[in-house]
Description:
By secondary structure, this protein is α+β, with helices and mostly antiparallel strands.
Amino acid sequence: MPTTPTSEAIAGVDLAALSDWMEREGLPDGAITDPAPIGGGTQNIMVRFSRGDTEFVLRRGPLHLRPGSNSAISREMRLLAALADTAVPHARFIAGSTDEEILGAVFYLMEPVDGFNAATHLPAAYAAAPAGRRVMGFALVDALAALAAVDHTDVGLDDFGRPDGFLERQVPRWLGEFDRYADTPGYPGPEFGDVGKLASWLDDNRPGASRPGILHGDYHIANVMYAMERPEVAAIVDWEMATIGDPLLDVGMLSAIWPEYDGESDLYESALGATGDLPSRASMLERYAAQSDRDLSAIDWYTVLACFKIGMILEGTYARSCAGAAGRDVGERLRRYANGLFDRAHRIVG
Length: 350
């Protein structure tokens, strides 16, 4: 049986136990070599390694598991497996286990993605090509349209979420989340405007019934990998908020952070957005409309809901940072994003 050098320890991943499990699963034989942590936008642990002649990426919850961490990873595993034969760009699922005894948490293996995260950096070729960066913006829409086009029942995800009443549940859910922040030690309260006004507007202007589909739940530049050689999305990543709901909320999320005019940066201050060569918000929506039969007439409503939802989530990280449960520099940055999202929502509502 192959062994793994103990000197190559990775926090949260017992490499010897992983190797034994892979042996039982009939995965490529050999010793685990070159294990290296991969940084990302969440606290989940990701490790890239080789075994035999094959490269893998392992994903599991954080070292100190949060409530729901294992459930979220299990759902990601199921979703990636369901997307296998679709046109959605994603990392191919290989194998996984819900047996927490193996690594102390649910985990899965996927193929590495040959790409880069444009939220943090741009390769030199892209940095020097304004036209290519504009295409990269449109590529975000193309990948999202491909996801929304998938019939979730055809790929076995009919019970992956609760689409009935999805839109009606959103405002109460995120207001409830916000109310809990008040008891966080050291949290001074929000800087953004009247949350109640936005909540009332959302309730009063909610669109009618929509066709359900797969919702990523947090779709933006940092949650995709771009191909190294072509200005297209190689994989959508970080599926932990995915569910079955109204896919137009993903479009609203993209709209919420996107530059309103040519030449502006996005609200998340990405490396790609900082170039100032992205297509405008209106151009992005036109691109989506050309590929989808979904009705975008209420897109401002979905944009405000996305600002409301994601703004609440980001403010929550700031609140936790005030109590020492998250890095203060991260908390301050995410609060700045939350304020920007609420500012945009208030401008739309008027």
